[in-house]
Specification:
The complex is a heterodimer of chains A (314) and B (318).
Chain A lengths: L20 H42 L9 E3 L4 E2 L1 H33 L2 H15 L3 H21 L7 H25 L3 H9 L4 H12 L1 H16 L3 H6 L6 E2 L11 H10 L10 H33 L1
Antiparallel strand pairs in A: 1-2, 1-3
Helix pairs in contact in A: 1-11, 2-5, 2-8, 3-5, 4-5, 5-8, 6-7, 8-11, 10-11
Chain B lengths: L23 H49 L12 H32 L4 H14 L3 H19 L8 H25 L3 H9 L4 H30 L2 H6 L13 H7 L5 H10 L6 H30 L4
Helix pairs in contact in B: 1-11, 2-5, 2-7, 2-10, 3-5, 4-5, 5-7, 6-7, 7-11, 10-11
Classes of the chains: A mainly alpha (314), B mainly alpha (318).
Amino acid sequence: MMRGAGAISAVPAGGGLRADPRRHRRERLMRGIFQAAAWVSVIVTALIIVTLARQAIDWFLRADLATLWTIGWFPRRGMFDLPTLLIGTLLVSGIAMFVAAPLGLGAAIYLSEYARPRVRRVVKPVLETLAGVPSVVLGYFAISFITPNLLDPLLGKVGFFNLLSAGIAVGILTLPLVASVSEDALRAVPMALREAALGLGSRKAAVTLRVVFPAAISGIVAALVIGVSRAIGETMVVALAAGATGGSLRTWNVLEAGQTMTAAMASLAYGTDQVKGDALTFPSLFMVGAVLFIITLGLNIVGGRFVRRIRERY
Amino acid sequence: MTTVDTSASPPIVEAPISLRSTTRGGRLRDGLLKALLLLAVALSLLMLFALLAEMLIEGAPVLRTRLWGFLTGGLNSSPAVAGVWQGIKGTLMLVVIVAFVAFPLGVGAAIHLEEYAGDTRFARIVDVNIRNLAGVPSIVYGLLGLSIFVYGIGALAGGRPFRTVIAGGLTLGVLVLPIVIITAQEALRAVPSGIREGALALGATRWETIRHHIMPAATPGILTGTVLSLARAAGEAAPLLVVGAVTGVFFVGSQGLVEQIVSGRFTALPMIIFVWARLPAGQGWGVLAGAAAFILLLIVVLVNLTAIMLRNRYEQKW
């Protein structure tokens, strides 16, 4: 459906449209502008890498690397125990995936295999909206609801700040992402496979679990990997709900307060203009940031490979 | 995956799926699975409503008694008087800046990738790069903003760190840029190539076909994507924390508007929620945090739902 040819700007009399230099100049100009816009994204990546690398390398060169293995992360006192943060991140994202994976996959399977179109039209927007909930709100939800109403009755009085409720909240945040990527993967499985299995006499449950799910496995793995990456990168929820601002001891106990890499970065930035502390304190922000960036980038690249396989397979 | 042996004569086929599934146990398993899946969906939906309800309940004391004062008051050391106005103002300014930054750059880049770039190796690298950028944690963007915009611009313009709303807006703009690009790409890709080819065949230049034929068709999708990205930017706090939004309880913004934008500190609604939620319990800050969280959540949810519903309704089926 073409909109009128009159939409093209003034045609010079005499039919010299092909040779009109103005059109070609305009074309070259716009082409250049769009190309420049595309280059900005490349520049952004380069800037991120340069910024992180510069300060992180500076830190590694100046710091006493033995401090990377002390018993707690107390950057303002010169104790830069990275494993504390890594353990915190691992615990929180593990709990998050424990929440997000079953619920997200379950919702995805239901939407893709069982739901009527009318149900889909309602449920999908709600899930997409859940994906847009600001993380501060979820952090506050963890403090005001999850800890007092869910954890205290079930597990006895836990600490006001604890990794478990932060993990659950991050799981709620990650759930829509897992659901949407795995739903894409499930829908990409051709109907022919389902029809073949049904034609051979299997019931819906068997078709879903033994045929469709394995067929979509690469997309589902992608969904989980991307979900983990999102959970690792979440800041505000842990900064609010897991406590431990100035620093934290190394702990595996999820009922205690703790810090993840992101929360540690937040608390370092929080005090930047007042307390510079030791000259190594501020750059450690970038050091942790570099580690975080490398981990999430690795996960994203792996996840991306699996996502491309969804498209290629069929 | 299962295979069916169709070689040789016996038409008997190894049933790849257990025939047990036609028995009563199978029916039970069927029903059980469906129930479990339904439970998963119900729980997921419940989350959104639980969030809204909880915020409303927590914030009710403030919302019910002094809503107007809460919306128009500034930050204050007394919880009985404090309001979110400075946060609302800050968030609005940030959203405007993000729109100015991310929309042109994002749509322009998407147009380049979809219409001009072709399938070269470079184009594919840029595409992968954008997808990876979309997955970078928001606090890393905060670090970028701190280095380039706060300290970088600060060094160029006189020495003091440039902790202004402009730096915050630029940082958030860079953060949502990959999302804008990706959604714009998808909107452009949805336009059938027949339209492109028809225009080009009649002698239009690429820019002319884009401007007069492709953009009008793709605009609803692009706008929806942009609106959703703006809503995302409005809810971000981590980058703002790093870039230097005000975290103190009391904040005086008494300069003229232009002067404040260019040199003054700023705050935003998510930041205020963060600050209030961390204050010691028992003084009434929790209620304020809940009320502010409810307002933020309500706005974000309404914007998201509206944009998504509109997109679903006006999605052109070619």
